[in-house]
Amino acid sequence: MAGMHRYMPNPGYLETRQAVAGTLAEESGLPFEGGDIVMTCGAAAAANVVLKTILNPGDEVIILAPYFFEYLFYIDNHGGVAIVANTTDRFRLDLSAIEQAITPRTRAIVVNSPNNPSGVVYSADEIVGLSDLLNRKQAEHGTEIFLISDEPYKRIIFDGMEFPQLLPSYDNSIIVTSHAKDLALPGERIGFIAINPNYPEKEELAGGFSFCNRTLGFVNAPALMQHVVRNLQGVSVDPDYYQRKRDFMYTALMEMGYDTVKPEGAFYLYPKAPIEDDVAFTKDLLQSNVLVVPGRGFGTPGYFRISYCVEDWVLEGAVEGLAKAVAA
Ligand code: PLP
């Protein structure tokens, strides 16, 4: 195709943005258009572009523990201050903790469902509760609080559940996501930002995202991958592939006596460490060649994260080490 390697408009090819918008509109019932979409170098770039655009120095961004560790750096990159609110002991939304975290400086809250590391998927009721709280706090403080929905795992969801959409119940909302997980293309760096079509100043916001995509040095998402994903909207890896692995590991952990929440999506398990020191526990596991991440890195010491996005033989091999560690 002539010119396919040229520079392009910074938000990406219009045909690709229209394809993304079409699928989002079908799935959410919101009237997304191509202009509401900015193609990005994955969800990480999407989050950085959004934060660069909306934050003034000292603005606060609420994140929910356990959180994806890199949020701390993304927020810091753009002069923001991360404010951590805990979730419940089963990792559900804790609205009173979020309410306490909101101040007149709150500019955004980042919500990640299905969640890395807990595997929790927030229910429609939890989302409506959060939206009501944010609307009430905006009115109380006379501020604008963005809900940033980080949803790269939204198609990796189990037991026939449908993904509860976050945007329809709250207008000041933005999706940051990628095809790293649903199309298993993390190395290709392809994702997007989607602005809620009901956000009143969406054109201005889209202009800011386009500008920051360029000036942060991403310029635009990779051309070739934009052509690829244009035809793959709504397509996904088979979630059953991960569900089988979840079932295997969850059952094994329960039989061994670990305390863990049953994941509803993504590809992680987040059990309680049997000893208080999660770092020491992960070092114990390493002696048996089992590599997991201590909960401290996710803002919740005392837990550890297992990624079951690996071959079955790796999981089968890990069970022995996990059993040995819990017995010790
Ligand atoms: N957000 C969450 C919750 C993630 O788990 C990840 C990657 O693991 C990202 C964002 C970044 O994704 P990407 O590779 O698309 O930048």
TrEMBL record:
Entry keyword set:
Aminotransferase, Transferase
Looking at the record, the residues that make up the Aminotransferase class I/classII large domain are: 3-320
Domain of life here?
Eukaryota
The record's GO molecular-function terms, alphabetically, read: pyridoxal phosphate binding; transaminase activity
> InterPro entries attached here?
Aminotransferase_I/II_large, PyrdxlP-dep_Trfase, PyrdxlP-dep_Trfase_major, PyrdxlP-dep_Trfase_small
User: What name goes with this protein?
Assistant: Aspartate aminotransferase YhdR
